[in-house]
Amino acid sequence: MDGKVIVVTSGKGGVGKTTATASVGAALAQTGKRVVVVDMDIGLRNLDVVMGLENRIVFNIVDAVNGKCKSRQAAIKDRKIDNLFLIPASQNDNKNAITPEKMVEFVKELKKEFDFVFMDCPAGIEQGFENAVAAADEALVICTPEVSAVRDADRVIGLLYSKSITPKLIVNRIVPEMVERGDMLSHTDVLDVLSIDLLGLIPMDENVVVATNTGTPIIFNNQSKAGNAFKRIGLRLDGHPDLPIEVPSTKSSLWKKIVQKFAVKK
Amino acid sequence: MINRLIQKLFGKQAGEESKDIAKKRLKLALVCDKLEVSEDILKKLQTDIVAVISRYFEIDKTEFNIDIQRTDDLASLVLNTPILRTRTNY
């Protein structure tokens, strides 16, 4: 059976697309799925450094799409997870080096070899976005609880609907203290404004910066709240769509456990 | 700590929190974004409308004018055209 092709997009830059792509990809690969993550940000590649694979690049997406190498040659195997692969972007071409039509053809081949193909979309809604979205079956929209990010997410959601893709939302970098104080949009506020289903909520987590510093997947850090939230997103994408979404909160996990116990007994 | 207590007791009332302001601004911005019409679409609309009106009236196409005007709470399509004469063959 062919794999799923999922584009990770946001409109606004700097909201965590690349981290989300790497983390959800790694989470699914760790559960045994064959996963390839594709960096579609041609000219400004970053997925390779986030994953710690920047030293292993030989071929890139432009080479693979234009037939200069086989897709297997362009796919770099992850250092730690055996069935996780990266196809990096090229750093020297411009976004016109590939076309939506060629991407569709290329991804058809990838789908046969992998259970999941994640495409890390560049910021913006121009050629790079078109290239990434053309071949996608599904879309994840990432936004942070900020006015600018939500506005851009709305624009992107509209564009995805017009391409017959029903996207799902991930709200990233939630600071529970600020939400409780009323100084940050809560995820329900964001959902009130956007017409989209929620896939997951990621709390703000310093561990993400540390993981990126060293190029190791955040999901390896079991203490990381963001890492665990990404793992849950992986599960929801693959076979457990009803897994409850955990809302980031300031309460200690012990307290949460007690509350949950009582909730079950009732 | 004490500050927050005082704030809770006397200060901030419901609906004053900064996230509420953010939400209001966001909703308004999204409505405005969706009302934005490109020049291209406006030109196409003009061609269509001129064609329809021309079936009933003879109009001065060079003076035909179409525009979207916005006030705080609504947007309206305003078109203005001089009529030269009615078509009698209807």
Task: Write up this protein.
The complex is a heterodimer of chains A (266) and B (90). With 266 residues, chain A is of the alpha/beta class. Chain A has one domain: 3-Layer(aba) Sandwich (Rossmann fold). Chain A has 12 helices and 8 strands. In chain A, a hairpin with a 6-residue loop joins strand 3 and strand 4 (84-87). The model of chain A has no long low-confidence stretch (mean pLDDT 94). The mean pLDDT of chain B is 82. In chain B, strand 2 and strand 3 (75-80) form a beta hairpin. Chain B is rod-shaped and about 65 Å long. Chain B contains 3 helices and 4 strands; from the N terminus they run H-H-H-E-E-E-E.
Describe how the helices and strands are arranged:
The complex is a heterodimer of chains A (266) and B (90).
Chain A: E1 4-9, H1 17-30, E2 35-39, H2 47-51, H3 61-65, H4 71-74, E3 76-77, E4 84-87, H5 100-113, E5 116-120, H6 127-134, E6 138-143, H7 147-162, E7 168-174, H8 176-181, H9 187-193, E8 197-203, H10 206-214, H11 225-237, H12 253-265
Parallel strand pairs in A: 1-5, 1-6, 2-4, 2-5, 6-7, 7-8
Antiparallel strand pairs in A: 3-4
Chain B: H1 2-9, H2 18-35, H3 39-56, E1 57-59, E2 65-70, E3 75-80, E4 83-86
Antiparallel strand pairs in B: 1-4, 2-3
